[in-house]
Amino acid sequence: MNPTQILNALISENLVSDPNGARGRLLKEAARLFRDKGYERTTVRDLAAAVGIQSGSLFHHFRTKEEILKAVMVETIRLNTALMQAAMDAAATSRDKLRALVRAELESVNGQTGEAMAVLVFEWRSLSEESQAEVLELRDIYEQLWLDTLQALRDEGRLLADPFVVRRMLTGALSWTVTWYRPERGGLSLDGLTDQTMAMMGFAPEH
Amino acid sequence: MNPTQILNALISENLVSDPNGARGRLLKEAARLFRDKGYERTTVRDLAAAVGIQSGSLFHHFRTKEEILKAVMVETIRLNTALMQAAMDAAATSRDKLRALVRAELESVNGQTGEAMAVLVFEWRSLSEESQAEVLELRDIYEQLWLDTLQALRDEGRLLADPFVVRRMLTGALSWTVTWYRPERGGLSLDGLTDQTMAMMGFAPEH
DNA sequence: GTCTATAATGGGATAGAC
DNA sequence: GTCTATCCCATTATAGAC
C-alpha cells in the first residue's frame, strides 16, 4: 500500500477526517496556525477566519477550542502509525528497518503532516491532562516499532547504546528538524538527511 | 574555575542577576512557571504570587511580561556559554572536547539551569521577533564551540556525518532529555547519559 | 450549518497612595 | 518598592434568528 492508499483506508474507517470535508479542512488550518503562532496565541476567530466562517459557527463542529487541538493530535498519530508500519514492513534487514523508520519520521515531520507533527511536539502542554493520557496510549503503539528494531540492532552488535535511550534521543533529534530543515531551499534532500542521521550513528550509506 | 566561581564572576560583571536578589529570585520562579505551564498560560499574577508580591508591583521591575521572558533567556545563555567554554578548555582531545560539550549541555538542561533551558527551547516563539534576533546573536557564540569541535573530529575521520547537521541533531536530542530524563529516580546518572549519547555516535566509553 | 450579537471572564498594564 | 484599585481590552463560549 502506498501512502495515498493508506490515507484513504483510514478515512473510510473514520479514523482520520477527509481533508476535503469541512472538519478535515479546519483541522489542517488549525495545525498550521497552532504551529505558526502556538495554540494559546491562536484565537477561535483566527481558526474560523482560516476556513471562512464566523467564530460562533466553530462551536457547531467542536465543543471547545481544546477539542480541536486534541483532534489534530489524535488524527496525526493514527496516520503516522500506519505510515510507519508500512515503511517498516517493506524493509528486510534491521539496518534497513531503522533507515525506513528514520525516513518515515522525517517525512512525517517535514512533509504533508509536518505542521501537525510540530503541534504534537510543541503544544503538548496545552492539552488537558485527561487528553494527554488518551493521546499517550496511541503513541505507545508506534514507539514499540522503534524499540523492537533498535533492540534487534543491539543484539547484532551494530548499536552500542541502550535502545530506549537511543529512541528518545532520536525523537528529539528528528522532531527538532522542523525548526531548521528547509528542503525547498536546495541543499539536503529528505533522503540525504536520512543518510546523515544514519551516518551520525555510524551507519555508512550503501553504495 | 569551577561552576560556582564562574557564576560569581558573571554576577559581579552584572551579566547575570544574583539569585538571592529580588530580580534573580523572580527570574528563577519565572523560569519554573514558564516551563511548567508555558509562557502564555502563566499570568503576571502567577509570577507576582511566586515571589510574594502583588501583580502591580511586578511592573516596577520589568516594563512588560515579555521582558521577563527575554531576561530569563539572555541570562541563561550567558551562564551556559561560560560553563561550556570552561568545560571544553579542560579537555585535551577532540573526542574529549565533544564529550565535555555533551556533558555540559546535559548538565545545563537537567541541572540547576534546567528550567530556564527548557524555556529557551519551548517558548522561543513567544518572544517577539526583535528579541529573538538579540538572543540569537548570543547563541551563535556557543554554537561555534560545537562546530569547531565536530569539524576537528570529522577531519580525523572519527565522524561520518556533516558537523552542521550533527550539531542540530544533538541540539534536539539533548534538549529533548528535559521531557523524559529523571536522574533522581535512580537509573542513569548524568555521566551515564553522556556515555550513552557518545555510544549512540559510535564512541565507546573509555575503560 | 452559518449568521449576528453579546454574555462572561480573565488578562496585561497603569495610577496614585503609602 | 509595594499596595490597592481599576482601566481597557481580547478572549471563549452561548443564544437565538435565519
UniProtKB/TrEMBL annotation, chains A, B:
<dbReference type="InterPro" id="IPR036271">
    <property type="entry name" value="Tet_transcr_reg_TetR-rel_C_sf"/>
</dbReference>
<dbReference type="InterPro" id="IPR023772">
    <property type="entry name" value="DNA-bd_HTH_TetR-type_CS"/>
</dbReference>
<dbReference type="Pfam" id="PF17932">
    <property type="entry name" value="TetR_C_24"/>
</dbReference>
<protein>
    <submittedName>
        <fullName>TetR/AcrR family transcriptional regulator</fullName>
    </submittedName>
</protein>
<keyword id="KW-0238">DNA-binding</keyword>
<dbReference type="InterPro" id="IPR009057">
    <property type="entry name" value="Homeodomain-like_sf"/>
</dbReference>
<dbReference type="InterPro" id="IPR001647">
    <property type="entry name" value="HTH_TetR"/>
</dbReference>
<feature type="domain" description="HTH tetR-type">
    <location>
        <begin position="20"/>
        <end position="80"/>
    </location>
</feature>
<dbReference type="Pfam" id="PF00440">
    <property type="entry name" value="TetR_N"/>
</dbReference>
<dbReference type="InterPro" id="IPR050109">
    <property type="entry name" value="HTH-type_TetR-like_transc_reg"/>
</dbReference>
<dbReference type="InterPro" id="IPR041490">
    <property type="entry name" value="KstR2_TetR_C"/>
</dbReference>
<feature type="DNA-binding region" description="H-T-H motif">
    <location>
        <begin position="43"/>
        <end position="62"/>
    </location>
</feature>
<keyword id="KW-0175">Coiled coil</keyword>
